[in-house]
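Posted in: Structural Biology > Protein-Ligand Complexes

Title: Requesting predicted complex, MRU in pocket

I'd be grateful if someone could produce the 3D structure tokens for the following input. Sequence and ligand are given below.
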Amino acid sequence: MLYPVIWQNDCVSLIDQTRLPNEYTVVQIHRSEDMARAIKTMIVRGAPAIGVAAAYGMYLGAREIEAQNHHEFIEALEKVAELLRSTRPTAVNLFWAISRMMRTAYETLGSVAEIKQNLLQTAQAINAEDLQTCQAIGDHGLAALPNTPEKLRILTHCNAGALATAGYGTALGVVRSVWREGRLERVFADETRPRLQGAKLTAWECVQEGIPVTVITDSMAAHCMKQGLIHAVVVGADRIAANGDTANKIGTYSVAIAAKAHNIPFFVAAPVSTIDFSLADGSQIPIEERHPAEIYQVGDTMLTPSGVDFYNPAFDVTPSELITAIITENGAFTAGELLKYHPQPVNTADS
Ligand code: MRU
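-- Reply #1 --
Done. Output follows.
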């Protein structure tokens, strides 16, 4: 099993995802500033993995704080939180994990040394829980997917695998569970322009486990559906609004539209921590915009003439009406059932 974020030898080891599939490198992170940089530069990426990494980043920052009283410690920890929050705006797991770490600090009434100890324990709990959560998502996905006479061919977009979580994966966790049950024929992986998480990371993970995988360019997905090559689409999520609208890697929305046009079920697999119940719908989800070099440059090669403008949103929002079900660790739910089973207060535009 692959673990992209590991606490060992008093620091965090991250698999450097910017170097895969050509090089398997592990970087060691000792300080919160380095963790913030690792998240921003996508050494670690994928919503749940970012959450786990940020939780450890909070502890790394906390252990350097010299304040001796609770109030000063919290003030200094808030600055660490601020830095980590500023790394990537869309994946809500980042903010969720940081809030949970802050809550641990607020609620520990003992000495500063005890707060630090509790922060490490909370980060480790977030890590361990995410792994269990992904395995539960895999099991529920198995039950939610269509029963076909032939083995399933599943299309996925981006990488929502072990690399994007504490391990096992969400969308790719479902794929793993289907594979282990002997019900999978193969995965179709969209290459996922511009950063190619599908071609580089999903394909690499599948190869590690012997799962048959076919990489296609993003523009081929609808054609493959029309040819009857795809039984179901399963993708991950970076943030799900209370009404089920789902932000995920740019291109997901086009896949959902194509799936609807071809009557193919479209599933989102994500932990409950990816649901942002404070947002009534997807229009309020902040969308990260990244550097245009991701579009115009591959290595040292320029792909476009000079004098061109670029727009590089890293995520899009798939409206809930295109989503067959959202598979969480608690089961598979339609968008309408989300609030029924996870009742939380929701901020509407006028509240
Ligand atoms: O920009 P990335 O690579 O962090 O985007 C990742 C995705 O969009 C994933 O699909 C999502 O975070 C779910 S990961 C389980």
